[in-house]
Design brief:
alpha/beta; 8-stranded mixed beta sheet; 13 helices; 10 strands; about 50% helix; globular
Length: about 300
């Protein structure tokens, strides 16, 4: 839905969405965006980061159907969504930058709520609702461990799955750190340190699919640890201390117990909880391995975690 811009206080928006092998999610994304309220001059930037499926084709088709609203960009020089976002930011024309992901489904009022909430000196954290479909162990763990947008916002951390900020403020804070994962949290912490206020807006809602299997959760945790290794390398921190940090996490039993308690509340039985316990130990070991790989800047394409 696109409306003319009658109110001079309604600033133009650039929505930035990195794309990588997302063809299974794109039809739902396009349907969701079609329900949003756009103003004349708004734009949606799809920035492909080296897809090998039909993602680029699908994005170009929707761009042709809504010329002037959708733009397709290509940036594959550096693998990673934050490098792609940085490239798109440089091409964006809007006075407000909005970020979401290719596997998200914005609700009809999402864009209006963001536009009404963003202001100078404010970073808006919209609500991210993970969809539980099968009521399984790893879906519930995903909800507990990842993308708790309200809790994160309280700690001045905002996920680019649902974030909005004035372009002028973004420029003051600077581009995303081009680590493989966690660049959004690093950016929002820098924003808060500069004096900006993080505001949680539940009305700006997007739905995010849950990770339903252990393999999906493991890959997510590997990506996060790899990104932490990237960050340590970029900040010239000690690889020994990075190894030590993740080694000690393996034996941090209180974390296991906390997650098990929350999973029990979600209805998981004793057998399922024990399954979680020993598989979570494997996650911890993999985090150690992938943090070191991130520090050493091992090619993510070869690792298969992109």
């Amino acid at each position: 839905m696109e409306k003319s811009q009658n109110n001079i206080n309604k600033k133009n928006i650039s929505i930035i969405i990195p794309i990588f092998n997302a063809q299974q999610f794109l039809p739902d994304l396009f349907k969701s965006l079609a329900k949003c309220e756009f103003l004349s001059g708004d734009e949606v930037l799809f920035v492909d980061n080296g897809s090998t499926d039909d993602s680029v084709k699908l994005c170009k088709e929707v761009a042709e159907s809504r010329q002037g609203l959708y733009r397709c960009l290509d940036y594959s020089q550096v693998p990673g969504s934050y490098a792609a976002r940085n490239y798109a930011v440089k091409q964006a024309k809007g006075e407000i930058l909005v970020f979401t992901d290719s596997d998200c489904k914005p609700t009809a009022g999402w864009l209006h709520a963001l536009r009404e909430s963003v202001a100078s000196g404010v970073v808006v954290a919209g609500k991210i609702q993970i969809e539980i479909v099968k009521n399984g162990l790893w879906e519930h763990f995903d909800v507990i461990a990842h993308l708790n947008s309200e809790k994160n916002a309280a700690g001045n951390r905002v996920a680019t799955a649902n974030m909005a900020v004035m372009r002028s403020d973004f420029d003051k804070v600077g581009l995303f750190e081009e680590r493989f994962s966690g660049g959004d949290y690093d950016w929002s912490m820098r924003a808060a340190a500069s004096g900006m206020k993080v505001v949680f807006v539940p009305e700006a809602l997007v739905y995010h699919p849950s990770r339903k299997t252990f393999a999906e959760i493991l890959k997510k945790e590997q990506r996060i640890a790899y990104g932490a290794g990237n960050h340590a390398r970029l900040k010239n921190q000690s690889c020994f201390l990075l190894r030590l940090k993740y080694f000690l996490k393996i034996f941090k039993v209180d974390t296991n117990l906390r997650y098990m308690k929350q999973l029990k509340k979600a209805g998981m039985d004793r057998k399922t909880l024990w399954e979680f316990n020993w598989k979570f130990m494997r996650i911890r070991v993999e985090q150690l391995k992938y943090a070191v790989k991130g520090y050493k800047q091992t090619d993510v394409r070869k690792l298969g975690i992109k």
